[in-house]
Each structure stands twice: as structure tokens, then as C-alpha cells.
Amino acid sequence: MDERIKLKEKVQHGTLMFPINVYENLFWYQSSYLLPHWHDEFEIVYLEKGSASFSIDGQEYILSPRQFLFISCGSIHSGKAIDCPEAYAIVFNLNMLCSQEPDICKTKYIKPVEERKVLVPNLIEDTFLEMLIFDLIKTWKEKNYGYELYIKSNLFLIFYHLFNKGYVVESSINREFNSKLEKIKAALDYINSNYSDSLSIEKLSKITSLSKYYFCRLFKEITSLTPIDYINKLRIEKAIELLKNTNLSISEIAFEVGFNNVSYFIKIFKEYVGITPLQYKKKDTI
């Protein structure tokens, strides 16, 4: 099996028959971060209240209420809360808009977007698009009979408007940038599959065939985090899952997620979450 396929995100967004999901909570408990990640699905982020910043392939955007972002297939993206954001993520497989038979919509519009031959700008100010996205989220939450029909037709309307108004442009991303992106994806994949093991900058830089200095610089440029920050934040997320779902001790959890020093684990946990692991566990069981 191709190693890249094996390491890809394993989350199923929606179902095989309706491959779309709307996520209502983008920022995990008592954390202001949405860790850098990527997937083959297209994504629309919508901010209903508050403010938040998002990074997409190294480009930073700050969203205010009722603003939205388009995230192309395969883009590395992350987020950070600024002021109590209520953010939604609409994540869907573009194949849900394609028929099995020869299809001009698939060939002329959808596949070029999926293959990044054309790009949808990340940030667009457009009241009609905002209305469509808001209505899609509302319909998803209500789930009235026939809601799948509306959501699918809504997505077609969104792409019709994007193409009709000239927002979609020929891809200006060159091969050099794509190569950089793939190297950081490889590092992210490796970290996510081996976070409980000993990880070093030297090991990660070898995986990407980059010098240690350039790897760290490129990782920060694309994800807005240092490799060590990313590893620590990921380990804390995994620790929170274990605190909530198991009876393991604090020291057992520390070693389970890759920390070889319990005191350091407690220090990093408190730094990112605001309370100690023990306080979190007690709070979660109340």
C-alpha cells in the first residue's frame, strides 16, 4: 500500500451515500487552537459570532461575524480563537456533485477544483454567498424531510455563483510550492501516526529531505506553529481524549501520548489548557 494513502486522515466526513458533514465546534475544550491538518475534501468555514484567525497554506485570515473562507482540497489549514468564536466547518467530498455518467459539470467545473487546476479564493466578500452558506448550515441543523436535496442544490448554487462571478481563477500555485506543501504534509502525517514515539527535528527533517533549519522554517511558514509546538499540542489533544474516556493515571497518560517526563507533561498541559490534567479530570467527571 502507498505510504501516503495509509497515513491520510481517516475521518469519514458524512456517509458514503452523503459525504458531507457540518461541524459546529471547531475549537476543542478550553483551547484556542484548531491544529494544522489537511484532507482531500473541500471545506467552507463560516464564523457566526466572535472572531478567529485561520491559516491556509501559510496565508493568515482574520474572520469577523458572518464572514467565511473557502479551503481547497489538500490545503493545510489551522485556526486560532480570538474572541469567543462560534465557527462552523462544512466539509464535503466534491464527488457528491458528480454523476457516474459523462458529465460536463464534473469535467468543466468540479474536477478542475478538486485537482487544484483552478482555485477558489480563500476569502470573498459576497452577501449572496454568505446567505447560501448560512442557509446550508441552518438546513443541516434542522434536518427537515428532504434536507439532503436542499444541501446538494445549495452547493451547486455556491459553485455556480463562484464561476459565474469570475471568482474562480487559474491556479497560480507553482510546482515548487506544491512540493513544499507535500513535504510538510508528509511531516504532519508522520507526527500524527507516531506522536507517542520519540520525535526529533532531525528525524522529521530526514523524512522531508530538508535540512533541520529549513524544515523548521518551512513548517512554521505553512502551519504558523513550530514543529515542537505542533507535537506538544497534538499530544495534549490525545491526552484530553484519554482523560475523558479512560481510567488511566496522569503518569500513564503522559507516557501513552509521548511525554517521557510527567512534570513536563503537566506543565505543557496547563500552559495549553489553563488547568492541570488532574483538575481537568475532576472537572470532567462532575
Automatic annotation (TrEMBL):
The organism's place on the tree of life at top rank: Bacteria
Assigned keywords, A-Z: DNA-binding, Transcription, Transcription regulation
Family matches, as InterPro entries: AraC-bd (IPR003313), Homeodomain-like_sf (IPR009057), HTH-like (IPR037923), HTH_AraC (IPR018060), HTH_AraC-typ_CS (IPR018062), RmlC-like_jellyroll (IPR014710), Tscrpt_reg_AraC-type_HTH (IPR020449)
Domain (HTH araC/xylS-type): residue spans on this chain: 185-283
Keyword Transcription regulation: yes
SUPFAM superfamilies named in the record: Homeodomain-like (SSF46689), Regulatory protein AraC (SSF51215)
UniProt protein name: AraC family transcriptional regulator
